Amino acid sequence: MAPRRAGRSRQVCLCLLMAGLASIYCGMHVYPQARSGSGKHQMRVFVTLSTMFLMCLLRTAYKLPGTVPQSFKAGESRGELPVHTREAKKTGDVRKCKWCGTLKPDRCHHCRACGACILKMDHHCPWIRSCVGFYNYKYFLQVLLYATTLCIFMSWTMGKSTMRLMSGSAPLWLKAVMCFGEVLLILLSIALALFASFHLRCVYHGQTTLEFCEKLRRSTRPWNPDMYNLGPWQNFKAVFGPNPLLWLIPFGRPEGDGLSFPGCVHEEHASQAAKVDGGISSKVGLLSPVRRRPPANKDVLCSDQM
Q1: Rounded Cα–Cα distance for residues 299 and 211 (Å)
Q2: What pLDDT does residue 270 have?
Q3: Among residues 173, 188, 174, which one has the least CA distance to residue 32?
Q4: Beta-carbon contacts of residue 158 (< 8 Å; ≥ 6 apart)
Q5: Mean pLDDT over residues 278-283, rounded?
Q6: CB burial class (10 A; 0-12, 13-18, 19+) of residue 297?
Q7: What's the distance, CA 12 to chain centroid?
Q8: Among 21-30, 53-62, 246-255, 276-285, which is the least confidently predicted range?
Q9: Domain named Palmitoyltransferase DHHC: which ranges (predicted)?
Q10: Could you confirm whether 125 is annotated as catalytic?
Q11: What is the mean pLDDT of the chain?
């Protein structure tokens, strides 16, 4: 019950923060200059960005990230998966979740907060009390982009009003509230911009947050961090969908089914070389599935305890 109460408190704080900043911006900045052309223009932009942000946030929170289907659970007794996988244990067996006992496809990890194995799990987000995975990662990125743009727009346009109010004869409490809102918007703009840049960097390289963390931990171990890197254009299409016109709209779905993923071109060449050379692909500098050396009884990409 404690984690649930903590999740609700975070959501309440998020709602209060958004409502407070919107009230300061509209009441102390837009409303005094509502009759001017710039005030009307800024209000239109604010309403548009806020609407898109809320739509993406709702889609992220209520869109299921994707879980392991029943066909994988049915194949548990046979010890085989209905799709081809690149990730395996040291013994060569398919990955099996030690928490729920199901066989796991590539890039799938168990979330103990949600109690399920999530397809292409990126991370568990406490602000929405759900996981970010294959089916809602696009909407999560859109939340970051619209939130960053909205905070930068609000802090930039409200800066002149804040300076004018601070140099005038307004009441002290009004100056304090206005200054607090401006400073908070600047800090949020910086934090969200860094967070969005990190996730866009992961998309650019075809990685999830868990795979990025595993890359740092396995920097001295034989593991290919670019296993699913298809190139920047294909990586963005795999997340946002095949139609670039829908990349900033909270509709559509990513490419694929979340169960199997195409490998990078170098890995395909390595697999062909492995067949010719008897499972040894040292010529291209990558590892074939037969020669992986992960720790005993651990998954190749990431531990399920994350």
Answers
A1: 12
A2: 46
A3: 174
A4: 25, 29, 181, 182, 185
A5: 37
A6: exposed
A7: 22
A8: 276-285
A9: 94-215
A10: yes
A11: 80
**Strand 123-125 relative to strand 130-132, pairing:** antiparallel
95-113 residue pLDDT tens: 888 888 888 888 999 998 8
Angle (CA) 20-25-28 rounded to 5° is 105
Amino acid identity of 236?
F
Given a cut of 80, whether residue 286 has pLDDT beyond it is no
State both tokens at 219: 């920097």
The C-alpha atoms of residue 219 and residue 53 are separated, in whole angstroms, by 37
Task: Let me know how long the chain is.
Answer: 306
Structure token digits, residue 234: 């294909």
pLDDT at 280: 35
CA pair distance 84, 71, nearest whole angstrom: 14
Q: Which is the catalytic residue, given 125, 131, 151, 302?
A: 125
Judge whether 63 and 139 are in contact, CB under 8 Å.
yes
